[in-house]
Amino acid sequence: MADIKIISEKVKQALSDAGAQKAQHTVTEKEKHEFNVDGGQFSLFRTLFDRSLSITAYKDNKKGSAFINQFDDKAIEEAVKNCIKSAESGIADEAYDIAPKQENEVFRGGAYEPDVDLFFERTRELMRNIEERHPKILMEQMIVSHDKIHSFYQNTNGTEFEVFHGSYSVSLMFSAHEGDATTSFFGSGLSTDRLDRPFIELGSLEKDLADTEAQLATVPMEGKFEGTIVLTPSSLGEFLGSAVSNFVSDSVILEKTSIWLDKLDTQVADSRITVSFRPGDPRIVCGEKYTHDGFKSQDYDLIKDGVLKSFLLSLYVSNKSGFAPAKNTSFSVIIEGGDTPYEEMIKGIKKGLIIGRFSGGQPGINGDFSGVAKNSFLVEDGQIKGAVSETMINGNLAQLLNSLIAISRETVADGSSVLPYMAFDGVVISGK
């Protein structure tokens, strides 16, 4: 393992010698211990090492960048030279900048060193649990790994951030089979820094496996109606990602196409909705420590009690638009649980769908969406009637956030987010 602080100092000096007026760079080393399971059998155990150097430099208000995976002097010299050449051939823009001097800090977190033996036993236990509890599941692929990361960030304003963190991750891809019946593939995963509980009890693994088995017997959807959708935590994350992209991201603010452009500090959602990005929350495993622009990451609310409090902007777009930059650049999204137990939420629905996954294109500028509800279940008169074959839904993201029926008391924490089930009204559901 290289001394990445020494590497960083070499990069800093090379950038200065090459004429960079402002610059930032990150040196990273990773070590991965990985188990692969195919067809119910261990197929691979390997240890992987990776290294990377990312550089961003500014000269005469022009931006250049370079990325390499070698740390020798010649490679560093060449990368810096290419970075400066890229800047010199760019277009000048006074909005380009890096964060001002921040207090230097060393961050440590997670499970930096793996317990390989216990990790292996937890993986074997997961395989047994799936075989015993969900015999109709065919595990297409299981990848479990421990990732150890050491990184060092510097910029020309004097900021230094060093990060040591490690975590375990589980990634499953599976389908259900019974006789001639089969389901589509479904993926589920989680990150954790502890091995004190069986993997199947974490995140939504157990429920995802059970729901996929239930998809073996589907009922057809007939007709078209306006009803209620219940977004599971995984599908809620998808919809939130689309809303962020459409309404608060760099591109839509820069291009002034966001319908929320003039909505800061005004109501954009039901007052029960608070959406936070909190990489510092203990339920987020190895959350972001600093932003891409060199600011120390801070937790913040995107929407607080239905009121839009921030856009999700880089420093560049912040300087171009006049709006404040985001306090972190992660998607460590948290929506706390509400007052309604999940079972009561279902009992209150006249007719609608529980949506496990959504397949559709990028919503329109105004938030209109249309696509296929997958891994979904029909609800009628407060009862789950069964899994449905592919069914179309369409609606509007902005209107959806103002059509909230309930937020479940239960939440799912998978290491990267904490999300409940949320029920919304006014969505068009179309069957055959």
What tags apply to this protein structure?
about 425 residues; PmbA/TldD fold; eight-stranded mixed sheet; 9 helices
How would you describe what is shown here?
There is one protein chain. The protein has 432 residues and is an alpha+beta fold. It has helices spanning 4-18, 73-88, 116-133, 205-214, 233-247, 250-254, 315-321, 342-347, 397-401; strands at 22-38, 41-59, 62-68, 105-110, 137-155, 160-178, 181-182, 186-192, 218-219, 224-231, 275-277, 300-304, 307-308, 333-334, 351-355, 357-360, 368-374, 376-380, 383-388, 391-396, 404-413, 418-430. The strands form 3 sheets. Strands 9, 10, 15, 16, 17, 18, 19, 20, 21 and 22 form a 10-stranded mixed β-sheet that branches. It is globular and about 70 Å long. The chain has 2 domains: 4-209, PmbA/TldD fold; 217-432, no CATH class. Helices cover 22% and strands 40% of the residues. Helix 1 (4-18) crosses helix 2 (73-88). It contains 9 helices and 22 strands. The model has no long low-confidence stretch (mean pLDDT 95).
